[in-house]
Amino acid sequence: MRIYGKWLDDRTPSYQFVPIRVTGSNSDPTFESPANFNLKSDSLLSPNNSGILTLGRDNSITTEDIREGQHAIVKSVGLEGQFDVSGWTISEKFRFAAISGGHMNIRPIAVAPAAALAFAYGGPGGTLSYATGPQAGQAIPSPSALNGNGLLTSNVLIDTDLDSLDNLTNDLRASRVWKVGGGNLTTTAGLYMSSQDYNAFWSFLNVLTDVRGDGDSALIDVKTAAGVPTTQGGYLSYGIGGGLYHRSYDVNYGVTAPYASINYHLGKVAVGGSLRYDMGDVKGTLYGSELGGGRVGVTTVDMNGNGQISLPETKVATLPLGAPGRVDYDYKYLSYSAGVNYRIAEQLAVFGRYSRGGRASADKILFTPAVDYNTGKLVDNDSAYDTVKQAELGLKYRISGLTVNVTGFSAKTGEQNVQVNSAPDGSIRVENIIRGYEAKGVELEAAVRHGPFSVSGGATYTDAKIASDATRAELVGNKPRHQADLIFAVTPQVDLKYATFGANVIGTTSSYAQDTNQLKLPGYTLVNAFLQIRPTERVQLMLNVNNLFNKLALADVEQASIPASGVVLGRAYSGRTASATLRYAF
What we know:
Elements: E1 2-12, E2 18-24, E3 29-32, E4 51-55, E5 61-65, E6 70-85, E7 88-113, H1 114-122, E8 127-130, E9 151-164, E10 167-180, E11 183-210, E12 220-223, E13 235-237, E14 247-266, E15 269-287, E16 298-299, E17 316-317, E18 325-345, E19 348-360, E20 385-399, E21 402-422, E22 428-450, E23 453-469, E24 486-495, E25 499-508, E26 511-512, E27 520-521, E28 524-536, E29 539-546, E30 554-557, E31 567-572, E32 577-584
């Protein structure tokens, strides 16, 4: 028997997209930091843009602080037990987790020269001034020279309250080994049950900021040539796109899944198979203008309480509390797997496996046309889950000090999701994804040890393509975004009596920024070093240095091609960072 518990209250900053300079061509681009902004260490998070003013879940004015970041509150308790009864091994696993918190950040959706955005939001002769920070109220006389880079960003301030992500899970199984025909037959049967809440509130607001490093970016105001403000305290609107992404969720996902497996081992051969049947039940209520049906998501509110209505205060996102959307559907799907392993020699074995699995689409299909929000039922029952079908062939080789696994695979997957990317004109758009993928490849894992020295690593070569797309047929045959041909990781290390040290090297070849297969993201190799010192049995000191050589490596770029401005939005891995940990066991 084992009982365990956990209590976590944690806050971390959320690092989102930032402006990146790009030159060259789509096939051979060069990315670099804008002036006075370091991609490896800076973000747009700043005390000068930390306040969030919005309408809350009950449509009353509320204020939040973006410095809350990603706030996770988790209280969980679990029970595990295993018993032998009349030749059967019975195992029981139970866990309840009360999860809440929030997620707040600033997320650019467009970047352009400051003068261009002054024109876009203030018309001919539009002017800029600081709305927050030490220069609040001061005019910006030369937008093209602003911060040495001349850039402004239009951003979404994201305020997400997670009132309940509580989940309850239970897994009960029974296994037994039988002697059959000189071999061992292992049978297992079980029942998995779970309940997952998704009770959350999203609020997206639109603000302007400059691009400045060292946590000093500020909100920017715009006025027309006649001096009429088109922003208020840096806010363009207290919402985006007519109330988009101002949402309330209160949904519960229940799953009941019986499963069984059978495995037979005789001499050099092992054959096995398994089945699992998932039955899901989804119920709840949604509020938001995206549900359609005449639901209004914008209103006029005196947000700053000065008795006057500004232009942004006529564009305040609100929840249509009198017009809820229903969610009330169920689904079922079968997962299965079958495989065989043949030991050619003591050191060498080959294996094959075919499997089909699924994963519930869950909140990915909420606020999309997949659900009829009057009845709560699915428009298409197949949208309730995505499937993966995969065939594998491989070999395993083991001798003293050497392990090698090689696996060839062929997979077909389905996806229903929401993707943020760039429209052909360079603007940001949100697309509903209904798509299928195909991938073939080879995966290698190997480890070598000699005395205190060891090297372990792995690499995967993948040839992937978009096999179908319900909304953008022109993408069929393209490579999925961010899918590199080769990814790899190698870890050499030395284990001594009182210390362990080594490095973890990870890397990838180039990939495409978006599914249109135009702009390429360069490949990269990052080195992370580590040192562990064990002066006594119970004390361990650990030092880790990530990105040891301070390389610029891009994880994501939002634009599909290089825009005329030569500036894109993307995310870079952090530069060199170090951490130290002292652990004491008792």
